[in-house]
Amino acid sequence: MSRPVDLRSDTVTRPTPAMREAMAQAEVGDDVYGEDPSLGALEAAAAIRFGQEAALFTPSGVMANQIALQLLVSPGQELLCDADAHVVTYEGGAAAVHGGISTRTWQPAGAAIDVAAVAGMIRPDGFHAVPTAAIAVEQTHNRSGGTVIPFDTLRALRVVTEEHGVGLHCDGARIWHAHIADGVPLADYGQQFDTLSVCLSKGLGAPVGSLVISSAERIARARTIRARMGGAMRQAGVLAAAGQYALEHHVARLADDHDRAARLAAALAPSGVVDPAAVRTNIVALDLTKAPLDGPSLGAAAREQGVLVSVLGPRFGRLVTHLDVTDADLDRAIDVLLPLLTR
Ligand SMILES: *Cc1c(COP(=O)(O)O)cnc(C)c1O
């Protein structure tokens, strides 16, 4: 059978020939000695894009998030985030294990954050209480289907965190998608946060890599934390070159992924499992509560016909468009999925 249409995640992309060429040509050195020019160039370029002072390359988004959280929250302090956030759902308890960080969550509401309610959760330092040190939000919000937090909400959160003297972190694994969907400049996002993590190996199509972005002082500390976590690398310039290529060539094209996700949602809408109005970026959430198949059965049946679907719960699935999904792939996926989802 031909190559399956893989809609599980935007992490499944492979580097393009031009990206591989950039990797092959990369100048490298030992980054532990601070001598990898390609890595330094990528970190500087990323910091500038977000209007921040400095950035640090990490092998994964989880490591970037966890370094950022350790920068903002000391052991025994707490982080507030939503119960569906990647940092408390998919990171293996890393905040507690690596950072001694306590987490308290608000009810999942995707991008629709109730700023006043979040502000009400903040606890001051004091006898008995676990003091709140930071708040984390996710842009775009993964489990709610790639939804985009409105810029006004982020600004209001920034005001609240400044008033209370707590940090604000953005898990920006897909912040590029928010930038394309809402037209908010990356530098404007960058201004709202103390720390950001951004991912080069999701929608942007690099094989490896994320970045922590923050002030020069924090990034200097981040370098030590990264080394402690085993994330210091040597000639990582070959990876940085892929990331640099992705930053320069694969951000604007995300609009194509968003268009394809919208087309997919519209085509599957008659089945009643997708809400096309909720699809803002490259993720199509599948609510299978009334579908003829549950998640695992849908996943297996689609796989048999060459379409890979992400199953995230008994009655919850997800389709993700990305660099390696063509219009023909999308037609094939619709032909397979619509009958499976329709009674
Ligand atoms: C994928 C993802 C991460 C973690 O990235 P990895 O590179 O897989 O470690 C963090 N946050 C969000 C929202 C993600 O989707």
From TrEMBL:
Belongs to the threonine aldolase family. Pfam families: Beta_elim_lyase. It comes from Natronosporangium hydrolyticum. Keywords: Aminotransferase, Lyase, Pyridoxal phosphate, Transferase. It comes from the Bacteria. One of its GO terms (cellular component) is cytosol. Residues 6-289 form the Aromatic amino acid beta-eliminating lyase/threonine aldolase domain. GO terms for molecular function: L-allo-threonine aldolase activity; transaminase activity. The modification N6-(pyridoxal phosphate)lysine is found at residue 202. GO terms for biological process: glycine biosynthetic process; L-threonine catabolic process. Gene3D superfamilies: Aspartate Aminotransferase, domain 1, Type I PLP-dependent aspartate aminotransferase-like (Major domain). Its cofactor is pyridoxal 5'-phosphate. The lineage of its organism: Bacteria, Bacillati, Actinomycetota, Actinomycetes, Micromonosporales. This is Aminotransferase class I/II-fold pyridoxal phosphate-dependent enzyme. SUPFAM superfamilies: PLP-dependent transferases.
